[in-house]
Amino acid sequence: MMQDTKKVTVMGKEYIIKKLDARTGSFLLFFVLEKFLPNAMDMQSSEDMQKVSNQITGHIMKQDMMSKEEFIRLQNDCLSVVHAVLPSGDVPILNDNGSWRIPEMATNTFLVLILTAHALLFNVSDFFTEDGWKELRSLMEGISLANFKM
What we know:
Number of helices: 5
Number of strands: 4
Radius of gyration: 17 Å
Helix content: 40-55%
């Protein structure tokens, strides 16, 4: 069964990562495949799928991989589902307008980058299980330009 939330501890504080809505999650998956894994459909084995996680983590900050605007959009999508666990309850780390709800996060690059990576990987990792990957590959192989009428 798919998890809807994941609790992580970063720099001694707990955070809850939630699932993105299906449309945003789908966008992020295709964005990841296009930007980070252009040859992803060639992957066959579990070992290849493990490389996916390593490639995403290793390439997320390469400047030639995406523009600043693309990165900020991806980061905002990812951070929109991160909640800080506080004594008063769980609080989203971003306000609806994208500003920081927790002001000290605005200057903590390490924390923000780690939480972005946690949220991204949590939200796309289901697609890189063996069954998920086989299903996606099967679907993509069935799509060809011959099936589209202009």
